[in-house]
Amino acid sequence: MIVITADQVDSRSTPDVASETLDMLNGTFGGHLVLAADRTAGDEIQMLVDDGRSAVDIVLALTRTARWSVGLGFGTVRRPLGASIRESTGDAFVAARFAVDRAKKRQTRFAVAAEPGRAEARDLEALVDLLLVLRARRSDQGWEMHDLVTRGLSQADAATEIGITPQSASKRARAADLKTEDAAIAPLARLADAIDAGFDAPTELFG
Asked: What is the pLDDT of residue 51?
């Protein structure tokens, strides 16, 4: 399974946003969470998912705000699961802790950890980094177009809602690299699923 651990950036000098973030995660992704997102310690939040697409979507949602360092951990989880994320344990949790500690020191504030030496985890981290760098360069206008298209609107309909011409909407979409992002998400999800599949049998991470 896949554990996502996120630690709020600079929490000592910024307002606590854990509660509102938990509401967003559970409201948006609740149907895809094996264990609901919850606060685990101070300004840290954690959740358990079992599919790569949900993991990628959650990582993108958290990193967009620039308020979180995000660690993606792959591994086995002790069964039966606890009643909540705070009552659950296993190698995936250890991996996520290792990942979030690394994420705090990285430009993208994101990291992946799995069994030591697994090239697929390093590949996933590198490819997600590229997408996060692309997204970090997106303008407010580009994000506006992104959000409308993500809701299911066509570019023409988005143009009408914003009050611009279809040609201007097309330019915004190109500048925001919306097609590039859309094309990347499914392969990233498949790679995450492939890594997760390698932990079907019990294994021990990090000794």
From this structure: 96
